[in-house]
Amino acid sequence: MTAAAATAAALFFVLWWMLQGEESPWVPAGLAASVVMLVAAFARLLVARKVSRQHRAHEHVEWHSQAEPGRRSYDDVMRSRSMHAAALRALQRQSIDADVKESPEGHRRVYELCSEYLAGAERALQTPTIQPDGRMALRAGVERVRGLQKHHLLTWARGSAQSLTHEAQQRTRLFEKVETANRALECIDSALKVYPDEEELNVSARAVREFIISSRVAHWVELAERAAFKGYYQRAIDYYRDALYYLTRDRADLAGEAAADRITREIELLRVRLDSGDAIHPNPDNHNKKGKRR
To answer: Which of 7, 16, 69, 201 is such that its CA lies 20 to 30 A from the CA of 175?
Structure first.
């Protein structure tokens, strides 16, 4: 940039001297000097970006080459202040990439990297040979990474649970719905083991459990309604009892009690119809044959 400034100044004065006979000779001279400075600034920006990319790539390779071989090399990374700073910057960049891509698996991977970082940092803090400034840097990094760890675990659990719950809603068979919803519940429960007091996780777990209960109850209620429509009242009563079993076992709130009351009333109505003799025989063909013989 110094050479470019000197060149621009020389060009300015040379053009000014050559254009003395023209009106306002400093205007074209200034424009020419400005073009030289702009070209130099643009070239400097390109070079700076290239160097920055190479530096980040070097840090990334250095970090993984030191951290992935095993526990011992990871501890060496934490004891070196420069390598620890490179590891922390690489982890923060991966955190930003995971947030941009919004992939549950990406968040899970960053959470695992955070766990590895924290484990190595805790072991390094227990060694007496680490310098005071390095110890302070490690503690600051630990606090920052703990926040990243919680953020990415919660984001992974929320995204995975939502995706699996949506998939379960698209299933037609009951066992497929329940199986897929249980996978969503497993994701939430794994996060709850780490953060048991996180209200967001508890709310999500309750929502998935309610979906499983409602799917089971709706399945048996639908079978009962079909059987009642065809006149098989005893079979419908049995289906309603199955629905009532899942409802009273797994859902003890006001909505569950209201649904249980409705099912109980339906059972009572079906019993009245069954006692009145309006029910269809379970095997209508055999029943008709017996009637003809009589």
So the answer is: 201
Whole-model pTM? 0.60
Dihedral over alpha carbons 242, 164, 173, 213 (to 10 degrees): 10
pLDDT at 123: 82
Helix orientation angle between 199-230 and 254-275, rounded to the nearest 10 degrees: 10
pLDDT digits (tens, 9 = 90+) for 20-34: 767 777 677 788 878
CB of 59 closer than 8 Å to CB of 89: yes
- Count Cβ neighbours within 10 Å for each residue of 112-124 and write b for 16 or more, e otherwise: ebbebbbebbeeb
Chain centre to alpha carbon of residue 184: 12
pLDDT digits (tens, 9 = 90+) for 184-213: 999 999 999 989 888 888 988 988 988 998
DSSP label at 41? H
Please answer whether residues 164 and 184 qualify as being in contact, where contact means their C-beta atoms are separated by less than 8 angstroms: yes
> Token match 């600051």: residue?
140
Under 8 Å between Cβ of 123 and 78:
yes
Burial class (CB in 10 A: 0-12, 13-18, 19+), 37: middle
> What's the mean pLDDT in 133-151?
87
Measured distance CA(185)–CA(226) in Å, rounded: 31
86-125 pLDDT, tens digit each: 888 888 899 999 889 888 889 999 999 888 888 888 887 8
Q: Side-chain half-sphere of 266: how many Cα atoms within 13 Å?
A: 24
Distance CA(285)–CA(267), nearest Å, equals 26
Domains of the chain: residue spans and CATH: 56-168 (no CATH), 216-281 (1.20.58)
Given a contact cutoff of 8 angstroms between Cβ atoms, the answer to whether 281 and 244 are in contact is: no
Contact 268, 244 (CB under 8 A): no
Q: What whole-number distance in Å separates Cα of residue 77 and Cα of residue 189?
A: 33
